[in-house]
Amino acid sequence: MTEIQYKFHPNKKATIITAPFSGGQPKGGVELGPEYILNAGFEKQAQALGWETAVVHPLANTDYESKKTDDKDSYGIKNTSIVSQCCEKIHTAVKSALDSDSLPITVGGDHSIGMATVSAALEHNPDACVLWIDAHADINTPKTTDSGNLHGCPISFVMGIDRESFPPEFSWVPENLKPNKIAYIGLRDVDEGEKAILKKYNIPAFSMYHVDKYGIGKVVDMALDAVNPDRKNPIHLSYDVDAIDPSFVPATGTRVEGGLSLREGLFIAEDVAQTGLLASIDIVETNPLLAETEEHVLDTVSAACAIGRCALGQTLL
Ligand SMILES: NC(=[NH2+])NCCC[C@H](N)C(=O)O
Ligand SMILES: [Mn+2]
Ligand SMILES: [Mn+2]
């Protein structure tokens, strides 16, 4: 295979942005994701694929983890203040990477940071589209969420859905994502309120049913046809590792049976890379503390690294 030309990153510079944060959901351990992924050698792996890398830690010297609570506020959500502060820092880091022509690879941490990365990608280039790879739609609003966990809400903030239900802490979030600019792949655990939102806004969503019916190759084509029909706009790939079946990726906080095979999961990243349009990526929800065995940790961290490598151009031949 010939080497991929990255249209939006021709100089092949990448910035690994660590987001060691767990405040978007109640379980401890997901804040260790970036450390495990870096210790597994991810930066060197990126370099071996020809990328010039930097690593930045926008949450250094913060103490959000110790401020985490399990109580809902008057808006029905948890940890509003720390999620907002964390996301604002990640947002700034993603923008400054993009401004210096470097591809941001935000490594979580939980998926609440999607509000930061997606909105930054769209601020940088309003034509950008989003592929959200996940078992979950993460489009609850403070009004619809049952759990009150903000990792289930990032998309609604960036789309400005149920605006009146947002606490003022999130008023910094640019509402710059249009419903026809995001497509989902891998869905299989979508809340009733979220289903209503997906329907109302006609958001392209490919569940595991579609993956089984059409095959993953066709599903990625259909998702891109929906959000990037001329294949000319930048792609933000937001990858929640729980999209992949828990038999391959066990160490994550909201496991749902019946997911993507590891190959299907990696194919998505490979195929996005093949478009040459990848502009930014998130790899989130690796929680090493939820593993039952050492092997579970290894499987999950290896899969997270592999997603990153595939997106950065690793090919099988
Ligand atoms: N990023 C994730 N793993 N999100 C899981 C969200 C689960 C559920 N829909 C909720 O709102 O709480
Ligand atoms: Mn998920
Ligand atoms: Mn998610």
From TrEMBL:
Lineage: superkingdom: Eukaryota
Pathway: Nitrogen metabolism; urea cycle; L-ornithine and urea from L-arginine: step 1/1
CDD domains in the cross-refs: Arginase (cd09989)
Cofactor(s) demanded: Mn(2+)
This protein's UniProt keywords: Arginine metabolism, Hydrolase, Manganese, Metal-binding
InterPro entries per UniProt: Arginase, Ureohydrolase, Ureohydrolase_dom_sf, Ureohydrolase_Mn_BS
PROSITE patterns: ARGINASE_1, ARGINASE_2
SUPFAM superfamilies, alphabetized: Arginase/deacetylase
UniProt remark on cofactor binding: Binds 2 manganese ions per subunit.
Pfam name, any one: Arginase
Protein's GO biological process: arginine metabolic process; regulation of ornithine metabolic process; urea cycle
EC number(s) from the headed UniProt entry: 3.5.3.1
UniProt GO molecular function: arginase activity; manganese ion binding; ornithine carbamoyltransferase inhibitor activity; zinc ion binding
Top-level class of the enzyme under EC nomenclature: hydrolase
Keyword Thylakoid appears in the UniProt entry: no
Cellular-component GO terms for this entry: cytosol; nucleus; ornithine carbamoyltransferase inhibitor complex
Catalysed reactions, as listed in the record: L-arginine + H2O = urea + L-ornithine
UniProt family annotation: Belongs to the arginase family.
PANTHER family cross-referenced by the UniProt entry: ARGINASE
The protein's name in its UniProt record: Arginase
Species this chain originates from: Scheffersomyces stipitis (strain ATCC 58785 / CBS 6054 / NBRC 10063 / NRRL Y-11545) (Yeast)
Gene name of the encoded protein: CAR1
